[in-house]
Amino acid sequence: MADFEEKRAITAELQIDQVQAADGTQATAVVRCIRGPVHLGAYFFRDPDQESINLQLTRIVCLGRPMDELDPAHTALVTLRGTGADRLRPGNTTAGWQIIQGSNPTT
């Protein structure tokens, strides 16, 4: 499975700004889209600085409204579900930013 994940095209990247809640299977975080647009259902399989993750984007809320996608340079509150949700961490200019990479759904 790791070989397949490494060969997937990275079409979506989120920068983690703030983690509001996280456990082993779900995280709610404020993120900034740095490659996209990122669509609902996007699958995040890589954190370049950590172990692999397996997270799916299940909710995007921007300016208080649910959205189907998040465009680059925009910030939103998102929910990610799957393995590795508890490894998401907030970032800042001093400590650096955590970036997760993945791909949008094919449909």
Q: What would your notes on this structure say?
A:
- There is one protein chain.
- By secondary structure, this protein is mostly beta strands.
- The chain has a single domain (2-103), classed as Translation factors (Elongation Factor Tu (Ef-tu), domain 3, Beta Barrel).
- Helix content is 6%, strand content 51%.
- The protein has one helix at residues 2-7; strands at 12-22, 26-35, 38-39, 43-46, 54-62, 65-66, 69-70, 75-83, 98-103.
- Strands 1-2-8-5-4-9 form a six-stranded antiparallel beta barrel. Strands 3-7 form a two-stranded antiparallel sheet.
- A hairpin with a 7-residue loop joins β4 (43-46) and β5 (54-62).
- The longest helix is centred in the first third of the chain and has 6 residues, at 2-7.
- The chain is globular.
- Residues 1-6 have low confidence and may be disordered.
Short description:
The protein is mainly beta and 107 residues long. 6% of the residues lie in helices and 51% in strands.
